[in-house]
Amino acid sequence: MIGLGFRRDLAEEMIAYKGDAFDFVELAPENWMNLGGYWKTQLDQIAERYPIFCHGLSLSIGSPDKLDYAFLKELKVFLDRYQVKTYSEHLSYSKCDNAHLYDLLPIPFRQDAVNHIVSRIKEVQEMLERPLIIENVSYYTSVAAEMEEHEFISQIVTNANCKLLLDVNNVYVNSFNHGYSSKEFILQLPLNHVEYIHMAGHEKISDDLIIDTHGQDIIDPVFELFEWTSRQISPVPVLLERDFNIPELPFLEKELGQLKSITSKAWKKQPVR
After folding, report:
1. pTM
2. pLDDT in tens, 98-117
């Protein structure tokens, strides 16, 4: 299954689309919850045609603040209403002292952070009555690290018994910026927990810095890493993320086609779980 982000810039095109380039759509629930009128109608129309996956922005799983229980209750209503089985979030934090920071900030790779996040994930999964899928994020400096990134991710995923959203572009970005092997990093993750994959573009700022933007085409080395990664894991849904500089749908069909071609060769007739 290959998916595409449901963005308002593309909503009408995606609702009217007659092709087969994508099989599901993903959206940020915070941007669609409690809506009425025109946009509620658009959401209902796309939900009639495609399965809905949700990728959250404001859970802030790494925050020192208490979980936002009111938000989680509203989120569960939304997930149930649209029969959303796949709900993912970022392994980061975006709130502190009840202030929204409007960014996805890195969490220190420390054992106390692991324990804190594992407890919070278990609570979220119990409240939502579905598994939480946690995404490896891009970061540009580590904060008070006491362990390696792959160890941090692995401990959280295995101890919380949650799922992993493997963002291949984020691995590429981090490996480039921090000077490690992307393939070695992926092989050290709990690949049996991978439930979902994201693919996106980035922007090269200088010879030693690239920024994860979701606003450019996917480059060949990221496609190559994705192809290699696909052979290491069982079939899972794959999403094309494009959040900025969004072209018209026909321009995205090429990238969607590349993803579909790679997965069909790597996974052949194995079913997507």
Report:
1. 0.92
2. 656 556 777 889 999 999 99
β-pairing verdict for 24-27 and 2-5: parallel
Residue 90 to residue 104: CA distance in whole angstroms: 8
Instruction: Assign 3-state DSSP to the chain and report helix, strand, coil percentages, each to 5.
Output: 40, 20, 40
Query: Alpha-carbon distance 88 to 214, whole Å?
Result: 17
Domains: count for the chain: 1
Rounded CA gap, 228 and 217, in Å?
Answer: 19
Triad 236, 215, 60: Cα angle to 5°:
65
Q: For the beta carbon of residue 126, count every other beta carbon within 10 angstroms.
A: 9
CA 257 to CA 273: how far, in whole Å?
Answer: 20
Indicate which CATH number applies to the domain containing 114.
3.20.20.150
